[in-house]
Amino acid sequence: MLVKDSVNKQTLQKLKEKLDKGLMPQWAVTDKDIYELERRQIFGKTWQFLGHESELKEPGSYVTRWIASDPVLLVKTNSGEIKAFLNSCTHRGAHLCTADFGKKKTFTCPYHGWSFNLEGELVGVVSGKKVYGEKMIKDEWGLRPIPKVGMYQGLIFASLDHQAMPLEDYLGDMKWYLDILLGRSDGGMEVRGVPQRWTAQANWKMTQENFASDPYHVQTNHRSTVELGISPSDPNFASYGHQIVLGNGHGLSIMTSATGKSPYKYQTLPESMWPMFQRNLSPEQNEIFSNATVFVGGMFPNLAFDSPVHGMEGEMINYLNLRIWRPLGPDKVEVWCWFLIDKAAPEEYKEKAYKSYVGSFGPSGTLEQDDTEVWARIIQVSDALMMEDKELSYNNVNNYLLGEDVFEPVENFPGPGVAYPSTYTDNLARSIQKRWFELISKGLLDEEEDSQ
Ligand code: FES
Ligand SMILES: [Fe+2]
């Protein structure tokens, strides 16, 4: 039996047939039943990004985050360990800590005043034994830990699934590219400010796809940034370079220039830092990094990154932007957007980098606004009656055939993964969709087949 009548085996099989051909029915983007499958089988199972270690500076530092609909309290304990708990009081389930960040020794519930220490242990009960007698065993009422917590290059992840594979296996070959972005400098990266966040009318799959796998939109949708002189001056700049498919729904595009060499060596980071990059990275990683204009990509399901060069007062400046698309439903996302820069960068560069970020991404960013507008319009179109065609009788599908039969993988790319010789290809988008479908249909198609 399938859990949902409207997403039955036949529908899933039709969906799979279309996906295998590089076609995505639009009804599946915002379908409510598909969304419920995503919530449980994707967000309930995969590793989810919660924050960066530099956000938790000292014992007692905490931030509050979400894994889709699950509130998370992330704390640094007295021993320096990072722990994650369901941010819900074990008395009656009130949202325990409602601040975004801070530093505390204990967390006291606003409802009846129970308090918990940094290890999640219940340490205070209002009126204690007077009202609970001897029956209250505090040890039994600690906060519920998030089943898995892991860290890679300062990125903190967690999973709601006890059976989740080790984080490093989950990230796979993406680690090699994360090392370039996060491990190139002594001391790593630091988050400046707090993550900006806002809601957008959008579907999380479309926003992830936009960042992870769709440089093709840049030429048109962000054309004004070329004309303003805040993006590289060649209007086709986003097409040069490689798209790299890494499996497990991860991948990225690394843009260069028409000549294959970026005019912005090491993405304009100061020359004084270059020997450090050469020391911390392999020759292959240096070859890629020194010639890159932009790194943009994603880790399945909803963590995306962008490391561009962006014009700020006449100079091109680099920064790293991490972002998650927290789904609030099939047609709404809460965007969480972090600015990061090398801890070892000169202070003057860091300040320029932050201004460059604020002008390009985040709620005030030019490119952000270009994209947000289009995402909302996809949602509006998804409400059309003709989009409800689950039988696909009108062949109502979206096109993921970019680069098909045009680009073959290159053989001598210096990094891991399957690299295509242009960023204008849908190979990565299709690999993301494949992973998405594997997870949402897990157990559903097979179970049905077993019972036949
Ligand atoms: S719900 Fe937290 S103390 Fe009652
Ligand atoms: Fe964009």
From TrEMBL:
Pfam families per the UniProt record, alphabetical: Rieske (PF00355), Ring_hydroxyl_A (PF00848)
Domain of life: Bacteria
Keywords: 2Fe-2S, Dioxygenase, Iron, Iron-sulfur, Metal-binding, Oxidoreductase
Sequence ranges assigned to domain Rieske in this UniProt record: 47-158
Name of the protein in question: 3-phenylpropionate dioxygenase
Gene Ontology molecular function, alphabetical: 2 iron, 2 sulfur cluster binding; dioxygenase activity; iron ion binding; monooxygenase activity; oxidoreductase activity, acting on paired donors, with incorporation or reduction of molecular oxygen
Keyword Zinc applies: no
Keyword Iron-sulfur: yes
Gene3D superfamilies per the UniProt record, alphabetical: Naphthalene 1,2-dioxygenase Alpha Subunit, Chain A, domain 1 (3.90.380.10), Rieske [2Fe-2S] iron-sulphur domain (2.102.10.10)
PANTHER family referenced in this protein's UniProt entry, alphabetically: 3-PHENYLPROPIONATE_CINNAMIC ACID DIOXYGENASE SUBUNIT ALPHA, CHOLINE MONOOXYGENASE, CHLOROPLASTIC
Family listed: Belongs to the bacterial ring-hydroxylating dioxygenase alpha subunit family.
